[in-house]
Structures are given as structure tokens and as C-alpha cells.
Automatic annotation (TrEMBL):
The chain crosses the membrane at residues 20-39, 51-68, 75-97. It comes from Anaeromonas frigoriresistens. Keywords: Membrane, Transmembrane, Transmembrane helix. The lineage of its organism: Bacteria, Bacillati, Bacillota, Tissierellia, Tissierellales. This is Uncharacterized protein.
């Protein structure tokens, strides 16, 4: 019960503090920025490869919806991440049916190495 109370206290703190609200709203824009910069060749680095970083879009969207609730801006930010994740899943279909499954597992459990999947 202590964890539940701490999370609800954090939720009320985020909803009252405008600075934290802006930070939570910027979080879902990190993954689309990485994706666009990588596709355009600006961030052609293995560190910023969008496939292993798909968890950023997934968890930032969950954090946004949980802490700030549903409104039009939040839904649009989540839809941007969902569209990019679906594009990556469509691209990964070239690797067979197991590739989107491994991408989904990597999205939910980011600490699992890719060669285990």
C-alpha cells in the first residue's frame, strides 16, 4: 500500500507542477525525434538505432497517459509513437513473422539482448 500511496502522491505532484507536466509531455517526442534523425542519416550511429530504443516510445506514452490523463494533445503524442512503432513493425516483417514478435518483446522488456530473441 505504501507504493500505491507514493505513486498517487507523485501523480498529484506532477499534475500540480507545470514544469513537471511539460517534461512529461516532452518525453513522447524523444523517440520520434530519434527515428526521424536516424532515417534522414543525421544520427547514423548504432547507439541511436531506433529498433533497440523502441521501449522509449512505448514507456513514455504509458507515463504520459497515466500521469496526465487523456486529452487531445496527449492522444496525438501517443499516436505519433504508435505510428512510428507500426512503421518499424512493418519494416521488420522482412525478417519474417518472428521479427515483429521480437520487436514487441524488446519494446516491453528492453533489458533482454536482441540475440536472445
Amino acid at each position: 500500500m505504501v507504493i500505491k500511496e507514493n505513486i498517487s502522491n507523485l501523480k498529484t505532484l506532477i499534475q500540480k507542477n507545470k514544469f513537471l507536466k511539460v517534461i512529461i509531455m516532452i518525453l513522447p517526442l524523444i523517440y520520434p525525434t530519434i527515428f526521424v534523425l536516424n532515417i534522414n542519416g543525421i544520427l547514423s550511429n548504432e547507439l541511436f538505432n531506433p529498433i533497440p530504443l523502441v521501449w522509449i516510445g512505448f514507456y513514455s506514452s504509458i507515463i504520459l497517459i497515466y500521469f496526465l490523463g487523456l486529452n487531445l494533445i496527449n492522444i496525438l503524442l501517443v499516436l505519433i509513437n504508435v505510428c512510428i512503432i507500426l512503421i518499424l513493425m512493418f519494416i521488420s516483417m522482412m525478417g519474417g513473422v518472428g521479427a515483429p514478435l521480437s520487436l514487441t518483446i524488446k519494446m516491453i522488456l528492453p533489458f533482454i539482448p536482441l540475440h536472445w530473441l
